[in-house]
Amino acid sequence: MTLTFESPDQPDVVALIADLDTYQDTLYPPESRHALDLASLKQPNVLFAVARDSEGQAIGCGAIVLCPEFGELKRMYVSPRGRGQGVAKKLLALLESRAMDFGCKLLKLETGPYQHEALALYASAGYERRGPFGDYTNDPLSVFMQKHIAS
Which residue intervals define the domain N-acetyltransferase in the entry (predicted)? Predict the structure, then answer.
């Protein structure tokens, strides 16, 4: 497996993101989904990481949007064929490390209550629950978390 920072507009990465959208469509109504589109993921303040299997196929991705006061974790996903191999944990560690390289000290995220694996991953990585931030509103289908990544 390889983990690198890449452009999200590659066909296999676009397909991976589409799989994530399809999955989330089964869990949450549109008004409770806060995904970034492809154009947003290509902005200069976005760090976008891709995990690839031994055949070079994209099996996971994740992004951090660098804001002035914090970074926001977005678009974390591992395809079913990539699960159980520690891909998400490695992607998260890579993203956190790169965010620190850019001076980021605090990461925040929004996920949903039905994504039990994601909630467990974030909790095991030291993320703690918090209230809404930025433009988010209090939504029973949103779980907000944060982690201080540098002192």
Answer: 1-150
